[in-house]
């Protein structure tokens, strides 16, 4: 097994163990069924992004090849998860025990691990600034799904900036546009860094 596949396998296992544990704790603590626990957890962009990273890394670990642009787009999303959490939310949390471990995995260790994987193994020389547009599909799709779900099903908006019922269409639309602008800015940074690092060879057997 190449170093790339080994690192991908470790990341996939880390994501799987973390999310499965989080779901199990939700079931155990609130005496709910699996469907309700899944619905609660997948309300959040953090879980969407970590899950996609886990699936992608599992595919690579099994010998599949993923386009560098896809992996770079996932890097953008998980980087935003980590940055927003540590800048705006971390000081509001006071987790202990297993909850602290899960929080650390989802918002710090898995993002750092995937960033390291990207730096070491992903072929970056072909990244171009137009690649940023497809990377915005995931956050935009998430925003739409989150608002539709809250408006028509459970009434729970996962993030205040998406609270269509309270903020109205115009304000919510401005918030989403601002979010996509921020994503675009960090996406441009990833492309810029990738183009420069891409001139160097990836680890042996580790190009993607």
From TrEMBL:
InterPro entries in the record: Pr6Pr-like (IPR049713)
Alphabetic keyword roster: Membrane, Transmembrane, Transmembrane helix
Transmembrane segments: 42-62, 74-92, 104-120, 132-152, 172-193
Keyword Nuclease: no
Record bears the keyword Ribonucleoprotein: no
Name used for this protein in its record: FAR-17a/AIG1-like protein
């Amino acid at each position: 097994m190449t170093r790339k596949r080994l690192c991908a396998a470790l990341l996939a296992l880390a994501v799987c163990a973390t999310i499965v544990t989080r779901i199990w704790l939700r079931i155990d603590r609130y005496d709910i069924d699996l469907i309700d626990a899944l619905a609660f957890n997948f309300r959040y962009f953090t879980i969407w992004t970590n899950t996609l990273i886990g699936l992608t890394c599992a595919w690579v670990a099994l010998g599949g090849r993923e386009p560098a642009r896809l992996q770079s787009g996932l890097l953008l999303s998980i980087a935003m998860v980590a940055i927003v959490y540590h800048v705006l939310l971390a000081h509001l949390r006071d987790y202990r025990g297993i909850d602290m471990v899960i929080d650390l995995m989802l918002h710090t260790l898995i993002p750092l691990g995937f960033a390291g994987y990207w730096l070491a193994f992903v072929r970056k020389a072909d990244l171009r600034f137009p690649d940023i547009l497809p990377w915005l599909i995931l956050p935009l799709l998430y925003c739409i799904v989150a608002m539709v779900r809250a408006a028509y099903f459970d009434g729970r908006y996962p993030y205040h900036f998406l609270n269509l019922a309270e903020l109205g269409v115009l304000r919510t639309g401005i918030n989403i546009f601002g979010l996509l602008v921020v994503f675009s800015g960090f996406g441009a940074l990833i492309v810029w860094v990738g183009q420069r690092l891409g001139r160097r060879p990836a680890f042996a057997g580790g190009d993607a």
